[in-house]
Amino acid sequence: MNRRKIQDGVYWMGAIDWERRLFDSLVPLPDGTSYNAYLVQGTEKVALLDTVDPPMAATLMLQLKDVPHLDYIVSHHAEQDHSGSIGLVLEKYPGAKVVCTPRAKDMLIDLLALPEDAFLTVSDGEQLPLGGKTFTFLHAPWVHWPETMVTYLNEDRILFSCDFFGSHIATSDLYVTDEGRIEEAAKRYFAEIMAPFRSQIEKNLEKLKDYDIQMIAPSHGQIYERPEFIVDLYREWVSATPQNLAVIPYVSMHGSTKRMVDHLAAALTEKGVRVELFDLAVTDIGKLAMALLDAGTVVVGTPTVLVGPHPMAAYATFLANALRAKVRFLSIIGSYSWGGKTVETLAGMVPNLKAEILEPILCKGLPKDEDLKALDQLAATIAQKHAENGLA
Ligand code: FEO
Predict the structure, then answer these.
(1) Is the pLDDT score of 250 beyond 80?
(2) What angle do CA 277, 280, 285 make, to 5 degrees?
(3) Which of 9, 90, 126, 336 has its CA 20 to 30 A from that of 100?
(4) Which DSSP symbol is given to 55?
(5) Ligand 1: does its nearest atom lie under 6 Å from the Cβ of 50?
(6) What are the structural domains of the chain?
């Protein structure tokens, strides 16, 4: 796809990755993604904002074919899906300077082996004139790495936000056309990579209040012509409190744990607690991450394997801990055949979670009447705790 005009002297460049289904060998991409770069041409200087993931570098280089000169390559974020083609762009424009935060400079040297003298580091709030167009660089740490910044184009009032406000979506529509679709994609993105940094993101949102932003151009997904749509959602997500929702990630080998999960889910529903079940053998981890944003309680369902939790249950528990879910109550249910350390192992994996642990229920083989009664009691306890804590 060729470059596309956004305003006079401002163009979208980059690549749409329709087929990609996994990011960082971890995050599912059901709708693909895009790596957006932008070209800004002043009367005196020309700048490229970010690049593309290296496997798609040829697309960007083709778009740069009729750009004879480049003064700056602004690197908002050192992760390689945006920075990975900087070396190639520098080969074409050896005089261009890589503009970034001091911390990003160190990371780009580490990650891409770029030469020290290629850089122009900028301080927070520093301006860079291009002639009729002026950048203001705003350091915005931890969206979602420590070195990140965003760029405000003063005259056009466009915020180039890189990962901040992004969403993984491949589409030929440059601008948001379906806010419902983007809300889901952006929430998934927030849940997967931004959620652990809520407090820093809140500070960055505060910082943006001082700027009259008419458009937000992120480096994944579509451009927002109605910036308040995504800014308001981010405000909601960073400050959201847990809901009257029990999330049950589970795995079952021969059906015993599944029987317990189904029984608990029915009992919770009867008591007015919403439930979301995730069979970890087949689930989309992004959907689980989104549910963890809202969960008041998480109950992990696992059989015992090699004297501990099933590895997939350990994976989900590790994920909840890494994402610093705001969950208030935790429990474990499952089946074993001859014993093990399932509860101790999983309980030791959640140091980041400030949750109360509710009595786990492990049964030998198939759940018996007393196990089902214990599950009813667990459901009643969860409903009561949610009500006492005002979870709605
Ligand atoms: Fe889109 Fe953190 O890279």
Answers:
(1) yes
(2) 90
(3) 9
(4) G
(5) no
(6) 4-239 (3.60.15.10), 245-388 (3.40.50.360)
